[in-house]
């Protein structure tokens, strides 16, 4: 699982019927700099490529989410699966204390 900030939403004109009720979000993945900010990371667009993720938890623009990609993201759904990334968590706080040598 990786963390990222929701920076937008996707509007579809048609969707797979089994995915009704969910939303599609654009997420900018965290880099090391965002973890160093601590408890309240500011919503930023990083240099990492943004992703479109499926969300049925209710995240909104500016929220920090934990998302899974690839095969792990497709496991909860019946085939055929048009999903490559799914929102797995809504993050309230981040406690990041790197090991210092």
Summary, kept brief:
This protein is mainly β and 101 residues long.
Explained architecture:
It contains two helices and five strands, in the order ββαββαβ. It is mainly beta. It has a single domain (2-91), classed as OB fold (Dihydrolipoamide Acetyltransferase, E2P) (Beta Barrel). It is elongated and about 50 Å long. The chain starts with a strand and ends in a 10-residue tail after the last strand.
Write the topology of this structure.
Blueprint lengths: L1 E9 L12 E7 L2 H6 L13 E5 L8 E6 L1 H4 L10 E7 L10
Antiparallel strand pairs: 1-2, 1-4, 2-3, 4-5
Our Rg estimate from Cα atoms comes to 14 Å
At the fourth level of CATH, the homologous superfamily is EutN/Ccml
Q: Give the terminus-to-terminus CA distance.
A: 26 Å
Uncertain stretches of 5 or more adjacent residues? none
Number of helices: 2
Strand content: 25-35%
- The CATH topology turns out to be OB fold (Dihydrolipoamide Acetyltransferase, E2P)
Which CATH C-level class is it?
Mainly Beta
Order of the strands making up the biggest sheet: 3-2-1-4-5
H and E string = EEHEEHE
Total DSSP E strands: 5
Question: Biggest sheet: strands, sense, closure?
Answer: 5 strands, antiparallel
């Amino acid at each position: 699982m990786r963390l990222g900030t929701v920076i937008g939403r996707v509007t579809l004109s048609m969707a797979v019927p089994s995915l009704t009720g969910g939303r599609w979000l654009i997420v900018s993945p965290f880099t090391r700099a965002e973890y160093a900010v601590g408890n309240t990371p500011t919503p930023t667009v990083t240099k990492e490529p943004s992703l479109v993720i499926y969300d049925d938890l209710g995240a909104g623009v500016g929220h920090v989410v934990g998302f899974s990609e690839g095969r792990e993201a497709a496991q909860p759904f019946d085939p055929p699966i048009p999903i490559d990334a799914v929102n797995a968590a809504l993050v309230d706080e981040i406690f990041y204390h790197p090991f210092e040598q």
